[in-house]
Amino acid sequence: MSQQVAHWLDNLLKEIEGIEVRRKSSRRVRVDVPADALPALLELLQGRAGYIHLSAISCVDWIDDGEFELVYHVWSYESHSLVSAHIRIAREPGVYLSVYDLYQPAAFFERDIHEMYGIHFEGSPNMEKFILTEWDGPPPMRKEFDSEAYINEHLSWQEYNPEWLQELVAEGGGVIIPPEEQRFSQKKK
Amino acid sequence: MVMSRLQKIPVVEEKKGNPLARVFDDLVRFCRSRSLFILHYCTGCGAIELPPAMTSRFDMERLGIQPMVSPRQADILLITGYVSIKTLKRVILTYEQMGSPKYVVGICSCTVNGGMYWQSYATAKKLDEYMPVDLYIAGCMPRPEAVISGLQKLMDRIKNGEADSWQDYYRNYDYYLGNQQKLFGEDWQTPTDIITEAKHYELMGEGTLGQHTRLLEQHQQPLEALEMRLGHKLKEPVE
Ligand code: SF4
What we know:
Chain A is 30% helix and 25% strand. Chain A has 189 residues and is α/β, with parallel strands linked by helices. In chain A, the strands form two sheets. Chain A has a five-stranded mixed β-sheet, covered by helices on one side. Chain A has a two-stranded parallel sheet with strand order 6-7. In chain B, the strands form two sheets. In chain B, strands 2-1-3-5-7 form a five-stranded parallel β-sheet. A two-stranded antiparallel sheet of chain B has the order 4-6. The site of iron/sulfur cluster has 12 residues of chain B, from α5.
């Protein structure tokens, strides 16, 4: 059964131009599409193939390529399979279309991505702050945001092994992880 | 040689007045250490060790420690793990509303210096910069045995009169307020008027007032009582 569905899905996907389909397993497909073809693809998947559940939208910042990658994961309850549609958009100005009219849960994911990466989704119902309501720095998941520099500026630091902690360690409490093992920036290469 | 050793012997100054007062203080402290209420407020993942510590497996109640749901009626504020900066605001509000004497216990390495979130933009690193901490229980996360042994230590400290860091919040309010302002912005204000409380408890210290409290006074807005309304009406359904 699932072989059949897979075969049928592959045929369906061929209808879209510029698409690259990579089948990972009988129940998992990765498709790479040009950004402007994504709404059509999702419409097709939702309307004709039963992929009615948008499980997540994820985002990757490829700073060296100057691009964001957006991944739309859609799930079908009929064929029990997942399609991940990958698109790339330019990092500047970082604007893309909302898929809210196709999948309403997208509002939630898009708002989150907007907050964390600063991507603006046109047509999304709400681009207000979401979790970081009290944050006024830059979007923190962008690669150019230097978390370590930020905390050095705003928060103070104390030795991982202050003397009073050693007292606790002697009694069998506490964790000792030397900073060179814990901090990537101090790791010996 | 002998002299220098002699000098190290602590000299306890006898209090004048009623000799029984001291006995009474000891009794009060003993009783206090035997009836502790922990505020049920969990900040991070370390909180997951509390249910076994409280319930039948390790049973904290045999030590006289119980959970309590409201800050006004609790003695111990357990900070069970990382505090995000948003949470820290709430923790400070909660702490200030607790009645004295109150004790803060930092569970987990995250409260010591950020733990595995040392590099995160979202969590505060050193809890003792924002409120005085009586005791840390380090570990990621500490097992219920460690939590209980830590609380036992707190009980000992209360009994011996050593756990008085809550007074430090009044005596050095300027320092704590300064750190809070650094993180939350200059117009940070809590509903509790710590300076008036410090005067009331006669705990004004050298560090109570300073540049940061002056800054607070500039921004401070008088608090208004919440409007009381009886028979709260639900919104009319839209036709
Ligand atoms: S110390 Fe470990 S268990 Fe505790 S809050 Fe931090 S990460 Fe979680």
